[in-house]
Amino acid sequence: MEVKFNNRDPVYMQVVRHFKEQIATGHLAQGQVIPSRRELAGTLQINPNTAQKAYKEMEEQGLIVTEGNSPSRITSDERTLQSIRGELIADAVDAFVASVAKIQVPVDELLAIVKLRIEDSYAKHEAEGTSHD
Amino acid sequence: MEVKFNNRDPVYMQVVRHFKEQIATGHLAQGQVIPSRRELAGTLQINPNTAQKAYKEMEEQGLIVTEGNSPSRITSDERTLQSIRGELIADAVDAFVASVAKIQVPVDELLAIVKLRIEDSYAKHEAEGTSHD
Amino acid sequence: MEVKFNNRDPVYMQVVRHFKEQIATGHLAQGQVIPSRRELAGTLQINPNTAQKAYKEMEEQGLIVTEGNSPSRITSDERTLQSIRGELIADAVDAFVASVAKIQVPVDELLAIVKLRIEDSYAKHEAEGTSHD
Amino acid sequence: MEVKFNNRDPVYMQVVRHFKEQIATGHLAQGQVIPSRRELAGTLQINPNTAQKAYKEMEEQGLIVTEGNSPSRITSDERTLQSIRGELIADAVDAFVASVAKIQVPVDELLAIVKLRIEDSYAKHEAEGTSHD
DNA sequence: GTGGTCTAGACCACT
DNA sequence: GTGGTCTAGACCACG
Asked: Looking at residue B49, what is its pLDDT?
């Protein structure tokens, strides 16, 4: 498991996002056990507190559940899980639309650019990311 | 002139962005005089220091020029001005592509959503934004 | 025998409390044999260590006695047994009073609410809890 | 401002509770500015991080609002504020009822005890807490 | 081993 | 000065 961090967003939020992506792509499934705070901190090279912060955030969002001292698990609530993919997409689209709306780019021009770049990106992604941690 | 600020990005960067959008849409043209720092601070309800920071940033990017005591003006360099629109679009598309790439949303699905939301947004925008500053 | 655990208090303390409640309500009487650690752990779905810890706690409090290899029994000391009910009530009332004291809720309002909720709760309890372990 | 901490609950939650009580009793009103994290940490003798944690919790609960770098303020949403008192009382009553329900204490006996203890407590509280920080 | 909390001290950007 | 994040390291109870 690897995550490349940017310096704009808080690390713990990037961790949360990473897990959401893992769920959205099916790499993490219902009820699956996730690494302990300490383990995650180790593999991700972050401070255990930061990992803890990320996990707490995820728990508050209902993504994971943790009872007693057993390792935390992905929630079993399917509705929550299934909504994640949609949310990620919706958020991305919302942000994008908000960005371009003010410039009034013609729809056709915009879609053409997006299509081009997306396909380009997917091509790369396949080349790299074929194997999963 | 009104700008609604978010709490995520620095205010001064949002101001810079606002000017870029005004330029990209043709609401601010080559050589046009822009408000003084103090005036902008007043109309935008921001700290004069923030306005100053925004103008400094724009000057460094070559968007505006300030000579002596004369009011600042939009640059007369056409190449700079014409590149702005493209940059804004490119930035938006880059961010968008980066967001969705990890989720591997099928291109068709994605384009459909984007198209829908964009058209929706433009409709609203026309209804509201008929008058400009 | 079933106990529903919360995640706030230590499980072993919740087990102890459960036994106290059984004693206070007369479901466990003077000298009565109680399940072995292992048996309790099984029926309660808890770790044997936790059951052991609970029994140890109860022994220290004088609630149960264990001699040699014989199964543990409820103590025969009546004074201890009779004091339990009072303690449980006192603890509950203490915690409650401490909670509301700082908000200065008028006594009448408070008693009205409590009465309402208590009666409500008892009604439910009767409906469910007719049968005991 | 003083808060006496217990060792059972997390400090940051006790801080949150303290603020809720201040709101419920009217000592903190709509829109009022509250101390900075650092200041609170100083007066309460806690770590700034703990204060930060408490404030974040309160913000997530909608108790306080904080925009940009201005000092945080009590929310202006009256509905939220007015619900706090009720919540505090309801929580206390719920916990109390849950505690005594299992022991099946006769309602009359219980109410008598509560009334006695409450009045006692209020008498003390008046003697002490007449002055507000 | 697990999750959870706390302290201490630092850094950052923004106003 | 403000809010926010992060690291480092410690402690605790629980199982």
From this structure: 86
In whole angstroms, give the CA distance from residue D121 to residue D110. 16
Architecture category of domain C11-128 in CATH: Orthogonal Bundle (1.10)
Q: Quick check: A3 pLDDT over 80?
A: no
For A11-78, the fitting CATH number among 1.10.10.10, 3.30.200.20, 3.90.550.10, 3.40.50.2300 is 1.10.10.10
State residue D1's pLDDT score. 61
Using a 7 A cutoff on CB, list residues near strand E.
A 36-39, 48-49, 52, 55-56, 59, 66, 69-72; B 9-13, 46-47, 49-50, 53; D 10-13, 46-50, 53, 68-69
Q: How many Å from the CA of A14 to C1' of F10? A: 27
Please state, in angstroms and as integers, the Cα–Cα distance from residue A14 to each residue in A45, A122, B38, B99, C84, following that order: 13, 21, 38, 12, 52
From the CA of A7 to the C1' of F8: give the distance in Å: 20
Read off the pLDDT of residues C46-59 as tens digits, 9 standing for 90 and up: 888 888 999 988 98
pLDDT at B133: 45
pTM for this prediction: 0.84
Distances (CA, A) of B124 to A102, A110, B57, B114: 11, 18, 31, 15
Residue pair C76/C23 in contact by the 8 Å Cβ criterion: no
Using alpha carbons, select from D54, D98, D91 the residue that is nearest to residue C6: D98
* 3-class DSSP assignment, residue C15: helix
Q: What's the mean per-residue pLDDT of chain A?
A: 88
Helices (H), B25-63: 37-44, 48-60
Residues of chain C whose C-beta is under 8 A from some C-beta in D? 21, 24-25, 85, 88-89, 91-105, 107, 110-111, 113-115, 117-119, 121-122, 125
Task: Please provide the average confidence, as pLDDT, over all residues in chain B.
Answer: 85
Give the relative orientation of helices C78-101 and C11-24 as an angle to the nearest 10 degrees.
Answer: 120
The tens digit of pLDDT for each residue in B58-85 reads 988 889 988 877 888 899 898 889 899 9
Please, which positions of strand E sit below 7 A from a protein CB? 1-10, 13-15
In three-state secondary structure terms, B103 is coil
Question: Per-residue pLDDT tens for A106-123?
Answer: 889 999 999 999 988 887
C62 is written with which tokens?
């004088």
Q: How far is the CA of B47 from the C1' of F1 (A)?
A: 15
Q: What percent of chain C has pLDDT over 90?
A: 28
Given CATH 1.10.10.10, say whether it is the number of domain D1-133: yes
